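HUMAN: Now follow token order:
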Amino acid sequence: PGFLRLPTETEWEFAARGGAGVSESEFVAPTFPMDGEMQAYVWYGAPESSDFKRQSIGLLKPNPLGIHDILGNAGEMVMDPYRLNKVSRLHGQSGGVTVRGGDFFTPKDSIRTAQRQEMNPYDKDGPRRLETVGFRLAISAPVVTSKDRLENIEAEWQALPKLKAVQTNRVSIFDQ
């Protein structure tokens, strides 16, 4: 049996970047590969796109994984609390809810898969509801359901190819 939950930041970003559906060089780009103009894929803050209003889901082209509206339209809450992130390292104390992907007010030049912001989920009046924030659910299943399953996971881990680090000009690259 499975269950629904918010995706983690890592899961959300993997999906937003195109996951295994794109090459390594495309995966590290600011947005997933788009055939044509951004406005064919993303509702961003401009008269020629969202016109600064939330739009119906699925009217634009999907990303390489077939996911519609993962960037723009409505920012998406993820499971992880907000923390400052510098040089791929989390810093300081946890804050509010992390919201990813931008929304219908986000300018075109600010739309990117690394877009993240903090939202305080509560104020003096109770839970906050913002027109610019929504969520997308991930379907999950328990990882370790038995001792046999744990042994299978460990065997799969041991069978993975071993990576060795190669140092070149201050950049570490991995070869299989």
Q: What stands out?
A: Confidence is low (pLDDT under 50) at residues 170-176. The first helix runs from residue 9 to 17. The radius of gyration is 19 Å.
